Amino acid sequence: MTLQRLLCALLVVVCGWTGYYLLNNRWQEDIQVEPDAEKPLFTGNTVVNTSYNAAGLRSYQIDSEYLEHFSASGDTNFVDPVLWIYRDGTETEWRISASTAILDKNQVLQMNGNVRIFNLLPESAIKVIQTDSLRLDLINKDFDTPDHVLITGSSFQNEGTGMKGNMDRSVATLLENVKGRYEAFKH
Q1: What is residue 35's predicted lDDT score, i.e. its pLDDT?
Q2: What pLDDT, on a 0 to 100 scale, did the predictor assign at position 128?
Q3: DSSP labels, 127-143
């Protein structure tokens, strides 16, 4: 009889411990996890974004295959971006493409990988500028790059290392190791 009472007591202890364990897990509060600030606030596929200046004229448009916007840093990452810069809000003057780009909260666009800048005005002397990276301030349109640059026009080709300039004034200055090749106009 003592063995039977011992087994009964042991069974009561095991059931009591199991009940306590199960209820203790249920009574604990759920742990709240803060959202990961490094994940994008929003993403988009095949996005077109047009920006206007203070006078209400189109300033630029960014087309992108994919974008991610991060709220903590204010950065927007673009994949295969194409930037269109307008003259006087109506005429498209520049088309700039790259493999990737990052737009920061200060409206500075850093374009990387196979950067191509096309001047779309027929009277322009510069037709194409090629480089590996380009930093462009979208507010004042100043740009620069430390990389190798190739500038092609209708009758010339210049190359050098490093470039700075301004899109609104249509000015581009090569900084170092400048070489040029010019052809005479044929009338």
Answers
A1: 61
A2: 92
A3: EEEEEEEEEEETTT-EE
